[in-house]
Design goal:
The chain contains 3 helices and 34 strands. With 458 residues, the protein is mainly beta. Strand 23 and strand 24 (284-288) form a beta hairpin. The chain is globular and about 105 Å long.
Amino acid sequence: MSFTCGILSLIILLNVPGSVGETLRVACSPQAICALRESTVTLQCSYSTTTIRPQHSFWFSPKLKAKWRNEEDPEDLALDSDYAGRVRYTKTTMSSSTLTISDLRERDSGEYHLMIVTEAGQKYSSSTAATLTVSDLQIIINDTATQTERTLNCSTSCRLTSNSAHYRWYNNGKYVTWTYKHETRLNVYSNAGPGSYSCSASSHPKIWSNAVCVFGKNCWSVTYSDRRLCALEGSSVDFPCTYSYPRDQTVTETLWYDFRLTDLSVVEQFAGRVEFLVDKERNCTLRMNNLTKTDSGEYYFRFSTDTAGGSFSGKPGVILSVTDLQVKVSPTIIRLPSEGQSATLACISTCTLPNNPTYIWYKNGQPVTNKPTRSNKLYLESASSEDVLQYSCALGGTEAPKCIEDPEYITALKFITVGAAVFLVLFLIIGWIWRRRKKSSPGKEHRSTEESGQVSML
């Protein structure tokens, strides 16, 4: 790996020694929040700056301390592989910080704290935390006194912080009605009749509950085991999927499609790269090979039967994100470390990769085996700028890492390089001018002496 390659693939973090564990009065809003899986949540904390001069801040969660190098020294949430591409910080004022987490998973539930780092390198962690609970939408069927009625509840494990004005109900994937309350009563002879029912909250209309079969044993349904997929560029990915339909019907057509509403197998972009692992029982899995970033998007499975109107699409679909790897650091202050300074490097993707992948670090293309690592992070105790810029990362089982450009940080690094060059040029010019003046000064002093002597003689 060349020196240029290293510059293109990482951003440097300076670890400033400080005191961890000191507290700072912090007010978080809201202190407790309940949010839907797959939604986006925003947490904000503000702090006093009367005696503290913060240089930067970051968020952390104590539930991740097993992945830190030192459990007593919190690490930036944005560097954690399980939050890759899902965390964003916003500094709204000089004394507040906002954390936004997107594409929520139930495992994101927990406490989140703010860490303040001062200009002197001291660290202050918030004594209070913002507590997040992530819930799924579920339909619960309650039997009634009669065999022809059912009560459906659109429920969550906690009360949603973003109150919904109403709830929407779907039968066989089609909207049928809405209610102010989170429950609705169905009659087999009215409403939409028997079938597969789902619900959504008006605050998040694109996030649907699981589908349940009401007044029937064989309903129309398409179930995706994961609605969010993240995969590396050049790899393959499966879209696990199952489907069902009334037993007295026969499937005549199955296909996967995207926004073009066309069978992927006839779309030029996917030629030779898609496989349909579909059968007429339950499996409707799609496999996509040799992924490119242009493959990112939402995909749906649709099937038809031999009856009039016998067609069903699984909506919402599966959202695929295709990513590469980048070596990043936090805070986002661009500064090249001089000899003897420590640095923390993190192998980051633009979305959260599944199955807790293994990360491999390289220096000049050779595996690094003599440096401390933890999860997706590499810790350098002492390094020069030339050393740090020679590191890159890859996932276990993949090919050797490639140089990946990060325009935001490359621009900053170029700015530093140009600034240093301008400073050097100015230094040389000033030196040249100073030397010319020094050379010309003896002649001036000699003439001045002669003039003084002439005056004296007069």
